[in-house]
């Protein structure tokens, strides 16, 4: 559990720090970091996942908590190894980064723009959640040793 919480705290800190630094940019101003690949572009997202559910404050505050709680309830029946704990730490840290910001400001700061995905502006929390979920899916498909079930005697 220490690994999961360490990864979550690191992810949360990196996310909040980059959002704070990006908030100094002017809205709509583009700062190319890697020409054609990565640009800083400050936006405010008051929805989730590409702006979906924008304006539905109750759903935006309740749905993410329900999803995290359901994930935790499902994982309780397994002995998570370091790989699974790392993945869960990324997801938890990313969730907390966006959730805290949504609670405090009413929106999430996005700043990482990938010109080859013109509809997509994200932040460190979004990347952490997506990467953590992708690694868990990989684990489910190709690493059965990660999913050892707990038994009554455990």
Please characterize this protein's 3D structure.
- This protein has 154 residues and is of the alpha+beta class.
- The chain has one domain.
- It is built from four helices and four strands.
- A four-stranded antiparallel β-sheet has the order 1-2-3-4.
- The longest helix has 24 residues.
- It is globular, with a radius of gyration of 17 Å.
- The model has no long low-confidence stretch (mean pLDDT 87).
What's the short story on this structure?
The chain has 154 residues and is α+β, with helices and mostly antiparallel strands. The chain has helices at residues 2-22, 57-75, 82-105, 124-142; strands spanning 30-34, 38-45, 108-113, 121-122. Strand 1 (30-34) and strand 2 form a beta hairpin.
Topology:
Blueprint: H1 2-22, E1 30-34, E2 38-45, H2 57-75, H3 82-105, E3 108-113, E4 121-122, H4 124-142
Report the span from N to C terminus. Answer: 17 Å
Total number of beta strands: 4
> What is the average per-residue confidence, as pLDDT, rounded to a whole number?
87
* Rg result: 17 Å
Show unreliable segments.
Answer: none
Oligomer: single chain
Q: Order of SSEs, N→C?
A: HEEHHEEH
Tally of individual helices: 4
Shape: globular
Major sheet: 4 strands, antiparallel
**What structural class do the secondary elements suggest?**
alpha+beta
Share of β-strand residues: 5-15%
The main sheet orders its strands as 1-2-3-4
Helical residue percent band: 40-55%
Total number of distinct structural domains: 1
């Amino acid at each position: 559990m220490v690994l999961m919480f360490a990864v979550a705290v690191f992810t949360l800190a990196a996310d909040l720090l980059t959002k704070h630094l990006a908030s100094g940019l002017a809205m709509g101003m583009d700062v190319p970091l890697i020409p054609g690949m990565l640009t800083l572009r400050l936006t405010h997202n008051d929805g989730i996942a590409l702006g979906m559910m924008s304006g539905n404050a109750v759903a935006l505050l309740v749905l993410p908590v329900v999803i995290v709680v359901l994930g935790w309830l499902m994982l309780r029946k397994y002995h998570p190894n370091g790989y699974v704990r790392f993945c869960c730490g990324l997801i938890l840290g990313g969730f907390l980064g966006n959730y805290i910001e949504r609670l405090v400001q009413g929106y999430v700061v996005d700043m990482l723009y990938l010109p080859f995905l013109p509809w997509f502006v994200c932040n460190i929390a979004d990347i952490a959640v997506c990467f953590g979920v992708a690694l868990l899916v990989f684990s489910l498909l190709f690493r059965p040793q990660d999913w050892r079930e707990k038994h009554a005697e455990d």
